[in-house]
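Retro notes, structure queue

What went well: the backlog is down to a handful. What didn't: a couple of records were mislabeled last round, so from now on we paste the full input next to the output in the thread. Example, using DUF1566 domain-containing protein from Comamonas aquatica:
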Amino acid sequence: MQQTFHIQHAHITFPAGMPIPGIVSELKVQADTTTSAFASTHSLQAADLPAAPVGHGAIWPGMGGHFIATLPALHGLPARHLILATEEKDELAWGRRGEEVPGATSHHDGRANTQALLEHGDHPAAIWAAAYQADGHNDFYLPSRFELLMCYLAAPQLFQQSGWYWSSTQYSRNSAWWQDFENGYSYDNGKVNELRARPVRTIHL
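Corresponding output:
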C-alpha cells in the first residue's frame, strides 16, 4: 500500500510505512480592520483564471506571488491553487503562550486557523500574514502545517534553509507547529519564540 500526494503535474508517492516528512500517522491534536478584511473570501471560477504556470515555484502574474501546487479536495476543503507570497518576515512570535486558541488546530485549513488567531488577538505572525497584500489581493493568511509541507515538497528553493517558519497550526497551549526547509522536518516550538512567517493565499476551484 502506498500513500500518494497529488500536486498539479506531479504525484508524490511514499511507500507504506515510510515516515512522511513533517507528518505523523496520528496528528496531535490587531487590529479589527485586519480581521474584517481577512474575513472576506474570494471565490473565482477556474475559467476566470489565467493559466497556472507549469513550473512549481514560478511567479503567477497578477495572482499575488509564486504558484506552489494545486491541492486536492481534502478534509472538507475544496480543491484549490496554493499561492506563496514573495515576501517573508522574521523575528515574529506565534503569540499567547499558555492559552489554548479555539479553532486554530487544523493541520489543513490555514485560513480558518488564521481567522481564529485574529479573533483571539495578539498573534504577531498571523496578524502580519493576514495584513499582507500583493497584486490587489488582500486574502493572505498564515499557512497550515500541511500547506507549508506542500511548499517544501513543491518549491523548497523559495525558502531560507536556516531557521524555521511558523505554521498557523496550534500544537498545544504552549506551542505551535513550524516547518524546516533544509531537511523537511516539522515540529512544535514555544509560542513566544520568534521565527519566520511567509503568507499564502488559495483560490478555490
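Agreed that this is the format going forward. Reviewer comment attached to the example: The chain has four helices and eleven strands.
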